[in-house]
Amino acid sequence: MYLMSIAAGVLVGIIYALIHVRSPAPPAIALLGLLGMLVGEQLVPIAGRVIKGEPVLSWFCSECAPKITGVESVPKSKNPRAPDA
After folding, report:
1. DSSP string, the chain
2. 22-41: per-residue pLDDT in tens?
């Protein structure tokens, strides 16, 4: 894991050099880069589900969105704003 992390850092450093962004990047650029990494991390599982013909949208909302936003999805029964059934 450590070697993969350093390799990813070197790759990002090369990309920054190619697009003439100083490192560490300005906060807005760094945050957009982080968002891109989080979204990109989910593209492989999404592609796998599409290839297998499995549903994507509901899975994305329950599994990917919390990983990207950092906000865990709340089951409807535990949602305080959900009307009582």
Report:
1. -HHHHHHHHHHHHHHHHHTT--SSPPHHHHHHHHHHHHHHHHHHHHHHHHHHT---HHHIIIIIHHHHHS-----GGG-TTSPP-
2. 777 677 877 888 888 888 88
